[in-house]
Design a protein that fits this description.
With about 700 residues, the chain is α+β, with helices and mostly antiparallel strands. It folds into two domains: about 240 residues, Distorted Sandwich (Beta-galactosidase, Chain A, domain 5); about 325 residues, Glycosyltransferase (Alpha/alpha barrel), CATH 1.50.10. It contains 16 helices and 30 strands. The strands form ten sheets. A nine-stranded antiparallel β-sheet has the order 1-10-11-12-13-22-19-18-17, covered by helices on one side. Strand 26 and strand 27 form a beta hairpin. Helix 7 packs antiparallel against helix 9 and helix 9 runs antiparallel to helix 10. It is globular. The two termini are about 25 Å apart.
């Protein structure tokens, strides 16, 4: 039996200096607080490239005058086998509208909460020791200010968007030493990485209402209103500067200072409890999270890299828990900071969150999966506007499900089958009777789940069936189409192997769902799935798509995602020739530009190697040294020093997905064994 506490605690991040490129975060899945070495956000200017933000999944802001819909957008017509379909790919002549639809809404930084010591500069603070206890969700920071030691404990409640802190202060050696206080500052919303702009005080409004031991701060920022509710130590004095939107809490010379800060969109929300209550609630949540979920212990391995791999696995479970457990699919930088304006990319949703089902945490996935149900009407309208049936899911969007204009995003389709696969993983993780065999008599609770997602599954499949074109001999995908490997002219792409196989699997699976509900298969789903083109082969390997024989010989075709490998790996690969896929994987490992790979490519390739019986290669791929397979001390997957992507959660989610597949196996496949790695697994589910 795995000692869960020991497994987690041996990978707690511990810093003895200011790690300005790898700050530590606390969160509850829908709210995140990222701190510097003081345990707060005292020195945001010193932290780069990752800003110090306080973000909630509900914290979306739009600039005044932003369009509420895209009806005024001019579309570019693309020929789809004699039919014109319009796509928002070109901003020429409509630059402001195009840009505004991309930038709005954007997620914003709610506030900065930092330590304030009068007269002290950054250089006067000396970090001593900082540790993030992932078993309790507690950040403890020890440092000195002008030789005066301070201890700051920081925690985020699991059940509300509250950050609580306790500062322990011994008596100063000199009575003249300034007492440490706190500064709470509110910025204007911004679409940029930081999510906030402190240079525009006149564009937002902050009202402070003082009550005994409490403050109610009301915020108004264009279309976003929220409250910041504060409970604080008795006798703690403060002053509010309205023009700068700042509250300064005066310090005290010794003893303990406590403050809890809750953010809420609900007017008149309750004030937060104290630090002790928040600490206890967080500890209880995290104890259950680590106890009930899956676990993987690599401590008996002989390969010296096993400890580092285990560290990445444990930290990835923590990071996805604090960033990706909300009611919305996560953005690629989660709730740490903004990437692509804080919008989420639905083609990445699988890589972000599919692992929850395999690690015995399906409810964490189901919470955001429900977004598809809420967004179904808009997705239906998008499909209908282009002359297709069913529902077409956008690639880049915000909470409203609106398709974001882009020269690339609007022409992608590999996000389309995701809800089918994600719903299937949740169904199986619920231990539903006959989940793997497709039995037609599920238990009442499992039938309820089938009913709950039948429309999402059906509408997704109806679009796929109508999107495929019968050319007289077979069903084809594209043109127009941009595949997962975003290196091609949409007017030339036809039958990218990964998309074709994914459509085929999802159409068949949609009929499995119908059978489970006692309904007849849809003939169009079966017809299109059976008639879809088989993957092309050139020079003994699978190309990116059938019109690209130079995939492995001509730049830029051997850059970006080698997505043809997902046909047998991420997918079961119905009818995929294993010999050809073996040769394709070898060719990719030989010639592919590794610097252009992304964080999720390594687990995607590892999943392919696993299905081919190449467990050693799978592990080598997970641990491959490459700029975008770099893992920071805080557990984040860095992307080759890109300033706009200081972290990349699809890499974390992808690692968890692939390693679960290697450790637990898949339908018809045993765990993939790699020499030197001994994997003791508990509560991990098989993959499809």
């Amino acid at each position: 039996m795995i000692d869960r506490k020991a497994l987690v605690s041996r990978h707690n991040p511990c810093y003895e200096r200011a790690m300005t490129g790898a700050p530590l975060s606390l969160g509850n899945g829908s709210f995140c607080f990222t701190a510097d070495f003081t345990g707060l956000q005292s020195f945001p200017d010193q932290y780069s490239p990752c800003p110090l933000c306080t973000m909630a999944e509900w914290g979306w802001h739009s600039y005044p005058g932003s369009p509420q819909d895209d009806r005024g957008l001019r579309l570019v017509p693309f020929d789809a086998y004699g039919r014109q379909v319009g796509y928002a790919v070109d901003g020429a002549g409509q630059e402001e509208l195009f840009k505004s639809l991309r930038q709005n809404p954007h997620r914003c930084n709610l506030a900065h909460l930092g330590l304030l010591v009068e007269g002290a500069r950054y250089e006067d603070f000396v970090p001593l020791y900082q540790t993030l206890d992932m078993g309790e969700g507690l950040l403890v920071s020890r440092f000195t200010v002008r030789e005066r030691p301070l201890i700051v404990e920081t925690v985020v409640r699991p059940d509300e968007d509250t950050v609580s802190l306790r500062i322990t202060m011994p008596a100063p050696a000199s009575p003249a030493a300034p007492p440490p206080g706190l500064r709470l500052s509110f910025p204007y919303g911004s679409h940029k990485k930081s999510g906030g702009d402190f240079s525009l005080p006149g564009r937002h409004r902050t009202v402070c209402e003082a009550l005994p031991g409490r403050l109610r701060i009301t915020r108004r920022m264009d279309d976003l209103e929220y409250e910041a509710l504060i409970s604080m130590s008795p006798g703690l004095s403060f002053h509010f500067d309205a023009p700068s939107h700042t509250v300064v809490f005066d310090g005290q010379r010794a003893g303990v200072l406590e403050l809890s800060l809750r953010f809420s969109r609900e007017k008149g929300a309750d004030f937060p409890g104290g630090f002790a209550e928040a600490k206890e609630a967080a500890a209880a949540f995290w104890e259950g999270y680590w106890r009930d979920g899956g676990a993987l212990d690599l401590s008996a391995s002989t390969d010296p890299r096993a400890f580092e791999l285990e560290r990445r696995i444990v930290l990835s479970q923590y990071l996805t828990a604090i960033q990706s457990r909300g009611a919305l699919p996560p953005s690629e930088t989660g709730l740490t900071c903004n990437s692509w304006y804080g919008k989420f990319h639905l083609e990445m949703y699988y890589w972000h969150s599919a692992h929850f089902a395999l690690w015995n945490r399906p409810s964490e996935l189901e919470r955001s999966l429900a977004w598809y149900k809420r967004s179904l009407p808009r997705a239906r309208r998008l499909a209908a506007s282009q002359g297709y049936a069913g529902a077409r899911w956008p690639k880049m969007t915000g909470p409203d499900g609106r398709n974001t204009p882009s020269s690339i995003a609007v022409l992608l389709v590999w996000q389309q089958p995701h809800p089918v696969l994600l719903a299937e993983l949740c169904y199986r993780a619920r231990a539903c009777a006959g989940a793997q065999s497709g039995a037609q008599s599920p238990s009442p609770s499992c039938r309820a789940f089938l009913e709950e997602y039948r429309e999402v599954v059906e509408a997704s499949a109806r679009f796929m069936a109508s999107f495929a074109h019968w050319d007289g001999n077979r069903y084809v995908l594209g043109p127009p189409l941009i595949p997962a490997q975003e290196r091609f002219d949409p007017r030339t792409v036809r039958n990218p192997g990964y998309e074709v196989e994914y459509f085929r699997w999802a159409l068949r699976q949609a009929n499995v769902w119908r059978k489970r509900l006692g309904e007849a298969e849809r003939a169009d789903f079966a017809r299109v799935a059976g008639g879809l083109a088989r993957p092309a082969v050139y020079d003994g390997v699978f190309p990116a798509h059938e019109r690209c024989p130079a995939t492995f010989t001509k730049a830029p075709f051997y850059t970006d995602h080698p997505s043809m490998l997902a046909m047998l790996g991420m997918l079961p690969g119905e009818g995929i020739d294993r010999g050809i896929m073996n040769a394709t994987l070898d060719r990719a490992l030989s010639v592919w530009d590794r610097e252009s790979l992304w964080g999720w490519d390594f687990p995607m390739m590892a999943m392919c190697a696993a299905r081919l019986g190449r467990g050693g290669d799978a592990m080598e791929l997970l641990l491959m040294e490459s700029p975008k397979n770099t893992w920071l001390p805080n557990g984040h997957n860095a992307q080759g020093g890109r300033e706009d992507l200081p972290l990349y959660l699809p890499g974390n989610g992808g690692l968890l997905l692939a390693i679960a597949m290697l450790a637990a196996g898949w339908d018809g496949g045993a765990p993939a064994v790699a020499k030197g790695f001994r994997m003791e697994a508990e509560n991990l589910q098989k993959y499809i």
